[in-house]
Amino acid sequence: MLDKNQLTEHVDDYAKRLATRDPGLSLDEVVSLNARRKELQKERDDLVHEARGLGPQIAQAKKTGADASALLERSSAIKEQQKELDQSLKQAEEALDQRMLMIPNLPHPEAPLGGEADGVIRRTEGQPPSFDFEPKDHVALCDATGLVEFGPPATRLAKSSFVLFMGQGARLVRGLINFFLDLHTTEHGYTEVAPPFLVNQTTLTGTGQLPKFEEDMFTVCDGLYLIPTAEVPLTNIHQGEILAGKDLPIRYCAYSPCFRREAGSAGKMTRGLKRLHQFDKVELVRFVHPDRSDAEHQLLLGHCEEPLKRLGLHYRIKELASGDLGFSAARCYDIETWAPGSKEWLEVSSVSVFTDYQARRAGIRFKDAPEPGQKKGKTRFVHTLNGSGLALPRVIVTLLETYQRPDGTIRVPDALRPYMGGLEVLGGA
After folding, report:
1. Catalytic residue among 350, 352, 360, 361, which?
2. Reported pTM
């Protein structure tokens, strides 16, 4: 959530920057609601001030035997007016907060401007694989090896856009999850968390999924939703807390299945494992000092890249343009891997900085160090960051297509073999 007072004080600047995300977005209602809130607050404050002044006057009148009836009548009237103002102020604040929850984050000043087509390729890493045969796509490889079942029984158990990983395919999923978790915990310093996979509305509001994207969520019961990503529970671990500045950065990672109702429209990107209602992911979340936000973003990007380097996969870093940013993000890098059988780039991670947008929604602050000459530091909102480290389905697509052999089997990358019980080939006898 943006700072409503900053927004209304600098409305022209905010409107200009937000227009790069959504040209049709209007801030007029926010300005109007905030002005109304301030008017009501001033009226209430004036009444409270008047009531405080009446107290000594009433006491003095009683002490001297003077007639205090008018003062007492005014005091009673003030109490009734204050009750009415309290109710009106509450309604105004709720209306303003609901409107603020629907406004996206400000794009970072250095984020490219434009829409989806205006993203900028910042760099490309590794070399694309070469073959002395025509490489197959992952669907053909999975059909031939039995690693994944794309139709029944998976669709019979649930519906379309759900799959079954079978045998070595299931072991590959488990191996990749453990490989990612071990790398991020032992080498990158993240604390592993096993979070709940169901969360409430407050938690989803904290990270920005609600109220805007409720239709994309799987609702369960008792006010709970299946998580779309482990970012949601991880970010909200410190919901409503004031952290010690000396403890920053705080780093969490978690494996979770991810549940997304919208699995994409029919077409190329929905084929096979590319877009599913349920998929596995290891997520990284960092709580950082605002002054370190940009540097921490680059550090997190490096952490999310590292598994791909060790797996020997060809990938590139694409910075998203302002109009293509996620709702809560201020700046985002997509990591895309090259799938040689499908002949396309596939996103396997989004690495985002949210500035204090999520922290305001979730009430996550920290006590900063005191400035020179000051005894106490200020309480400020932290900055939050997150990145996939990594999402499995498209990593598997890329891995299968990159390491396929002429006979349709797949070589297991060296870095992954310890997590596969030493298995060197998938799909073999």
Report:
1. 350
2. 0.93
